[in-house]
Amino acid sequence: MPNTAPPLNRLSTFGEDGHLHVVIETPKGSPNKYAYAEAFGTFQFKTVLPEGMSFPYDFGFIPSTKGADGDPLDILLLLDAPAFPGCLLQVRLVGVIEAEQRERDGAWERNDRLIGVAVKARTHAHIHALSDLRPGMLDEVEAFFAQYNQLSGREFKQIKRGDSQDARALVQQAADAFA
């Protein structure tokens, strides 16, 4: 029987309850970066992070969105334990790190990092806003992306931090751009 389910990157952006759908690409603690490859219907190994680095949180994408870089929006997800590539979760947005990334060719492009909490998380259930995060956490996340990009021949520059409403507006804009 043929599979009639849509590809993961074309699932609905929002669930019936209004929470965000997120697909995990790279689990927390992984030194390997994975990305969903629609052409193959699976996850593809992209690269190994520089020596000693690993993803500080689960990293994924929001289906049926198109960011300024042409890809689905990226999101860091706070969860009790690492998920796995392809895991679909319901997520509550808590904020965004609005950022630009300079590619190897010198061109700057927007590459925001949304921050979310798994709806069914226990450890992070109290987090509803960036101000609920432990002190210094966002500085560490920004430093991770700056260092990772620098060692990969790119530059990452934080523009500003936004609240859950700013994040939701970016998601809606990216969902409209996908349509």
Task: Give me some keywords for this one.
179 residues; alpha+beta; Inorganic Pyrophosphatase; 5-stranded mixed β-barrel; two-stranded antiparallel ribbon; 2 helices; 17% helix; globular
Report on the structure:
- By secondary structure, this protein is of the alpha+beta class.
- The chain is globular and about 45 Å long.
- It has two helices and nine strands.
- Strand 2 and strand 3 form a beta hairpin.
- The protein has one domain: Inorganic Pyrophosphatase.
- It starts with 19 loop residues before the first strand and ends with a helix.
- It has a five-stranded mixed beta barrel. Strands 2-3 form a two-stranded antiparallel ribbon.
- It is 17% helix and 35% strand.
Task: Please describe the topology of this protein.
Layout: E1 20-26, E2 32-37, E3 42-48, E4 58-62, E5 73-78, E6 88-102, E7 108-110, E8 113-118, H1 137-151, E9 155-162, H2 164-178
Parallel strand pairs: 5-8
Antiparallel strand pairs: 1-4, 1-6, 2-3, 4-5, 6-7, 6-8, 6-9
GO molecular function, one term: inorganic diphosphate phosphatase activity
Enzyme class: hydrolase
GO cellular component, one term: cytoplasm
What is the CATH architecture assignment? Alpha-Beta Complex
Helicity, as a percent range: 10-25%
Strand content: 35-45%
- How widely separated are the two ends? 29 Å
CATH homologous superfamily name? Answer: Inorganic pyrophosphatase
The CATH class = Alpha Beta
CATH fold call:
Inorganic Pyrophosphatase
Quick one: how many beta strands? Answer: 9
Looking at how many chains there are and whether they match, the oligomeric state comes to single chain
Task: Write down the overall mean pLDDT.
Answer: 93
Q: From the alpha-carbon coordinates, what is the Rg to the nearest angstrom?
A: 16 Å
Q: How many domain units?
A: 1
> What strand line-up does the widest sheet have?
1-4-5-8-6
Order of helices and strands: EEEEEEEEHEH
GO molecular function: inorganic diphosphate phosphatase activity; magnesium ion binding
Keywords: Hydrolase, Magnesium, Metal-binding
Enzyme class: hydrolase
Organism: Methylobacterium dankookense
